C-alpha cells in the first residue's frame, strides 16, 4: 500500500532520483523549457516549485544568503542558482504559485512513453502578454475592396492616352531603315 507516499520513485534509487531531478531542474532554469516524459515532468514540478518560492522570500541579507544556500543544495549548479535568483525571481515575484506548465506531446515512437514539455509560465512568448502588447501597439490594416474600383475609372483616361501615344510611335519604328 502507498499510504502517505506522495513522490514518484521513477524506478530509480534515491540517489539516482535526486541526481535526475537536480539535472532536470538545472536544465529547466537554464533553458526555460524542456521536453521529457510525463512522469518525470510531474516529479520535476513538485521538486522545482518550492525552490522557486524560496527565491521570492528575501527580506534581509541573511535571509537571501540562507535561501541561496538552500537552493544550491538542491541544484548544485552555481550558474543555475544565479539565473534563478537574478532572471527568474523578478519575473515570478508577483505570481502566487504555479510557476511551471506541463503540456502533453503524445507518445514517443521508440517505446511509446508519454512525452511532455515542462516550461516556466512567465517565460513563454506564445501564451505571454508580450504578443498581446505588440498586437495592441500595431493597428490592424484595413482594406476596402469597394473603394478600389472608383479609383480605376478615374485613372483610365490617362492610361488610354498613353496607349494611343505608344501605338502611334510603334509603326514609325517598325519600318526598316536601309
How are the SSEs ordered, and which strands pair?
Layout (H helix, E strand, L loop, with lengths): L13 H18 L1 E5 H19 L4 H15 L2 H15 L7 E8 L6 E7 L8 H9 L8 H29 L4
Antiparallel strand pairs: 1-3, 2-3
- Summarize the amount of helix as a percent range: 55-70%
- Average pLDDT confidence is 82
Can you count the beta strands?
Answer: 3
- Cα radius of gyration in angstroms: 32 Å
Which CATH architecture of the domain at 37-130 is right? Alpha-Beta Complex
Biggest sheet strand order reads 1-3-2
Helical stretch tally: 6
Distance between the termini: 109 Å
- Written as H for each helix and E for each strand, in order along the chain, the element string is HEHHHEEHH
| Percentage of residues in DSSP E strands | 5-15%
CATH class of the domain at 37-130, named Alpha Beta
Uncertain segments: 130-137
The general outline is extended
Structural class: mainly alpha
Amino acid at each position: 500500500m502507498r499510504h502517505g507516499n506522495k513522490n514518484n520513485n521513477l524506478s530509480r534509487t534515491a540517489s539516482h532520483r535526486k541526481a535526475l531531478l537536480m539535472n532536470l531542474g538545472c536544465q529547466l532554469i537554464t533553458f526555460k523549457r524542456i521536453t521529457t516524459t510525463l512522469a518525470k515532468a510531474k516529479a520535476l514540478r513538485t521538486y522545482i516549485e518550492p525552490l522557486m518560492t524560496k527565491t521570492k522570500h528575501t527580506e534581509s541579507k541573511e535571509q537571501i544568503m540562507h535561501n541561496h544556500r538552500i537552493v544550491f543544495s538542491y541544484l548544485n549548479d552555481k550558474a543555475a542558482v544565479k539565473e534563478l535568483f537574478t532572471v527568474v525571481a523578478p519575473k515570478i515575484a508577483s505570481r502566487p504559485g504555479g510557476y511551471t506548465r506541463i503540456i502533453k506531446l503524445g507518445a514517443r515512437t521508440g517505446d511509446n512513453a508519454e512525452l511532455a514539455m515542462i516550461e516556466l509560465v512567465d517565460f513563454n512568448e506564445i501564451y505571454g502578454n508580450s504578443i498581446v502588447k505588440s498586437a495592441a501597439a500595431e493597428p490592424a490594416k484595413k482594406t476596402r475592396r469597394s473603394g478600389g474600383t472608383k479609383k480605376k475609372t478615374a485613372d483610365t483616361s490617362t492610361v488610354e492616352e498613353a496607349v494611343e501615344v505608344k501605338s502611334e510611335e510603334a509603326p514609325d519604328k517598325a519600318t526598316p531603315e536601309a
